[in-house]
Amino acid sequence: MTRYAPLKFIVLSVLYLSNLTPLFGVAIAYPVLWFLAVEEHFYFLWPLAVRRWANGILLGLVGFVIIFSPASRMISFYLARSNGFVSYMFNDYTWNALDGLACGGVLAILLRQFKPSRAVFQKALIVILGIALIVWGIGIPFGVVRQKPLGAALQVTPWHFLFVALIGLCPLVGSGPHKQFVQVKSLRLLGEVSYGLYLYHLLVFALFDHFVRSTGISPAIDPFFMILTRFLIVCAIAIPASLLSRRLFEDRFLNLKRRLAP
Fold it and tell me: Rounded to whole angstroms, how far apart are CA atoms 207 and 202?
């Protein structure tokens, strides 16, 4: 394993510090682990905040995070530029990547605190979607999608708002007369195995590419057909592997919640 990932990276990843390994002089060897680390940092702190503070205070906290993370990304951009080449690797650091999770927190708090009607909630989702489009529309001419300070700060922000709108749309549709559109069995299965699929898919891609290189069959195959074949084979391996992981490993820990949660 250390042939592909340094031992230092493996140790730091076990401690859920894979997104911070560059600070220790260690490259991120398996890219998907960075966001799992951010999630675990969030899951460690967020329940403590929820138990301690009322929804109003929590709303102010996540609002601060939504503003703080883009500002922190811009500061990180200027610090990186002063050292020469600017890499967006600093976006992986926890304090630069919490605003997406905070947006989800806002959605959960608003639904729990204010219990809006379907009509009000639908209008709120339209407003959120409008904010995403406005940030894109106004920001693109100023470099929001390029390696510029504004891009570093706000490049991912419209996506956060867009996905909040899409996530909010699911319970809205799922509780209405057209719920069949969000209760597709195949999509529900993918949702059930999403953690393992996110964790393993890159490894399966790497194994497939290694096999292709070692056999030398790639040049003899049409590129489009090769891409399609690669995708289908990886899906055929990664999805069942993720399902086995869910049934044999992950469920054991998920079931602990019923015994450990107060």
Answer: 9
Token duo for residue 145:
């999608």
Instruction: Give the model confidence (pLDDT) of 197-234 as tens digits.
Output: 999 999 999 999 888 888 877 666 778 888 899 999 99
E strand or H helix at 55: helix 55-82
Entry field: residues in the chain: 262
Q: Which two tokens stand for residue 21?
A: 């390994």
Residue range 68-123, pLDDT digits in tens: 999 999 999 998 888 766 677 888 999 999 999 999 999 999 888 888 899 999 99
80, 91, 92, 162 from 88: Cα distances, Å: 9, 6, 8, 21
Q: How far apart are CA 117 and CA 7, in angstroms?
A: 53
pLDDT at 261: 64
Tell me the one-letter amino acid at 4.
Y
Please give the C-alpha separations between residue 149 and each of 25, 95, 102, in angstroms, as whole numbers: 24, 17, 22
**What 8-state DSSP symbol labels residue 54?**
-
Give the rounded distance of the alpha carbon of 126 from its chain centre.
22
Buried (b) or exposed (e) across 36-54, using 16+ Cβ within 10 A? Answer: bbbbbbbeeebeeeeeeee
Ordered by start, the domain boundaries in the chain are: 53-180, 190-260
